[in-house]
Design brief:
Blueprint (H helix, E strand, L loop, with lengths): L2 H7 L6 E2 L9 E2 L5 H15 L34 E2 L14 E7 L8 E3 L2 E8 L2 E8 L5 E8 L1 E2 L13 E3 L2 E5 L4 E6 L5 E6 H4 L14 E3 L2 E4 L9 E5 L5 E5 L10 E5 L2 E7 L3 E5 L6 E6 L12 E4 L2 E6 L4 E10 L2 E10 L10 E3 L2 E6 L2 E6 L5 E7 L4 E5 L2 E5 L4 E6 L7 E6 L10 E3 L2 E5 L3 E6 L4
Parallel strand pairs: 3-30
Antiparallel strand pairs: 1-9, 2-8, 4-36, 5-6, 6-7, 7-8, 10-11, 11-12, 12-13, 14-15, 15-16, 16-17, 18-19, 19-20, 20-21, 22-23, 23-24, 24-25, 26-27, 27-28, 28-29, 30-31, 31-32, 32-33, 34-35, 35-36
Length: 454
């Protein structure tokens, strides 16, 4: 594949150039700044896509969102699994689509939402700054922002940071595209601590920039600077940012670290540019590794634990998928493929597991694969490089063009139940669902729809 084609396919992960002005200290915005920030969002969107300027749009008959009962506090939800099981969802949608609660403009970037404390949080690009932003979940109105000088500039991918923030109790952790890591008060946006993980640990940024979501594990915050100085994977004290341990020398990928139990051992699962690996939570020691080398060293989809000692992994660029089994091998584990084929090639679109089958976007086309055998059960539905979640025995697909689509999670055949246009523009971000409301965004607008069954 030509280099230009590689860039075109992976614009989800483009580089941000950070430029710290003045003293280099963060700028915490206050109430008087908010009008200017809202204007910046509008102008940023207009300059990025002048043919379709942003429009603040309210629902014809707005209704309040329910209280957020179970926070969607992590990337792709609890456990990073892409599953919403808090309550039943609507599986019969009106012809006009789900009831919209609100719709508002948003800054650029490819991060998703997390929810807590009656607010939703994301990170976005506004002019020459990256902004961590909090919005009222019921209205979409901005509550606070925290920003720093950083301007992404990539002609094919558009502006913006990539990594979805993470909520832990009263704190929010956000990672910018050039490595700026911040711990903020979730209620106010006040800065608690910050550091640049690339500068701090002498690591070079990867080609399409920092895209992984930090992972909170007990008192630790796990981040992936990459590099060859024994700091490819780093555990920080989540309260202070102090280094607790560093491990490995891998070039990193765009996959977010996960916590899982395999062969009875609770561990970190990390997918670097060249392998999947398990590390001890306590000190980062290597437990096992499985080579996973793709063209251009690109891994972006999340792995899935399928059995007590097996996990599923996938990648794009013709590489495909594998089911990997771990067996005891001394003080470590041995990892080997049970099967490996090209029936599902998920690029930066992580699949989900339901009743023994994996559902995912195979280079933009939805596919179902039997996890035990790797057999493809069906392939159908062109949704582009969108994202999907599992809810109520169905796949909730947010397509690349901004449609919300409901598909049965049924290995027998591809059955699309409903679909409507929810937001306009290129949409690569994962939805978030909490309290019966689905929150979606792209680089220009965001919206909330009622998806919970009453």
């Amino acid at each position: 594949m030509a280099a230009m084609a590689v860039v075109a396919a992976l614009v989800h992960f483009s580089i941000v150039r950070v430029d710290y002005a003045g003293s280099g200290m963060p700028r915490l915005t206050t109430a008087p700044d908010r009008a200017r920030q809202s204007a910046a969002v509008e102008e940023n969107r207009a300059s990025a896509e002048p043919a379709a300027p942003a429009v603040v749009e309210a629902a014809p008959r707005p209704e309040p969102a329910p209280a957020v009962a179970v926070p969607w506090h992590d990337f792709r939800g609890p456990g990073r699994l892409g599953i919403y099981d808090e309550a039943p969802i609507l599986t019969q949608w009106p012809a006009s689509g789900l009831t919209r609660i609100w719709k508002q403009p948003v800054g650029g970037g490819w991060a998703s939402f997390v929810t807590a404390h009656g607010m939703i949080f994301t990170i976005e690009q506004r002019r020459d700054h990256e902004f961590v932003a909090a919005y009222d979940a019921a209205t979409g109105k901005e509550k606070w922002t925290n920003s720093w000088a950083a301007h992404f500039d990539e002609s094919m991918g558009g502006d913006g940071p990539r990594a979805t923030p993470v909520i832990d109790a009263e704190r929010l952790y956000a990672l910018g595209a050039e490595g700026e890591l911040r711990c903020l008060e979730a209620a106010t946006g006040k800065l608690i601590w910050n550091k640049n993980i690339l500068k701090e640990y002498n690591a070079s940024n990867i080609t399409w920039a920092q895209s992984h979501s930090p992972l909170v594990v007990e008192e630790k915050l796990i981040v992936l600077p990459g590099g060859s100085s024994g700091r490819s994977v780093v555990a920080l004290d989540k309260m202070t940012g102090k280094l607790l341990w560093g491990s490995q020398n891998d070039e990193q990928s765009y996959t977010s670290p996960m916590i899982a139990t395999l062969n009875g051992k609770r561990q970190l699962v990390v997918v670097s540019a060249s392998r999947a690996m398990g590390l001890t939570v306590e000190d980062g020691k290597l437990l096992w590794e499985f080579p996973w080398v793709t063209d251009y060293n690109i891994n972006a989809a999340q792995p899935i634990v399928t059995h007590p000692n097996r996990f599923f992994i996938t990648a794009g660029y013709g590489h495909g998928s594998a089911l990997v089994e771990l067996t005891p091998g001394g003080d470590k584990f041995k990892a080997k493929a049970v099967w490996q084929n090209t029936k599902l090639k998920a690029k930066f679109n992580s699949p989900v597991l339901y009743q023994g089958h994996v559902y995912g976007l195979d280079e933009g086309i939805l596919a179902c694969v039997e996890v035990e055998t790797g057999t493809q059960k069906w392939k159908g539905g062109r949704y582009g490089y969108g994202q999907l979640l599992l809810a109520g025995g169905h796949l909730v697909v947010l397509t690349e063009r901004g449609d919300l689509t409901l598909v049965k999670a049924d290995p027998a055949k591809h059955t699309e139940v409903a679909s409507f246009n929810a937001i306009d523009g290129k949409t690569w971000q994962y939805p978030a669902i909490s309290g019966g409301v689905i929150y979606i965004r792209n680089t220009r607008e965001m919206a909330a729809y009622r998806i919970g069954a009453r």
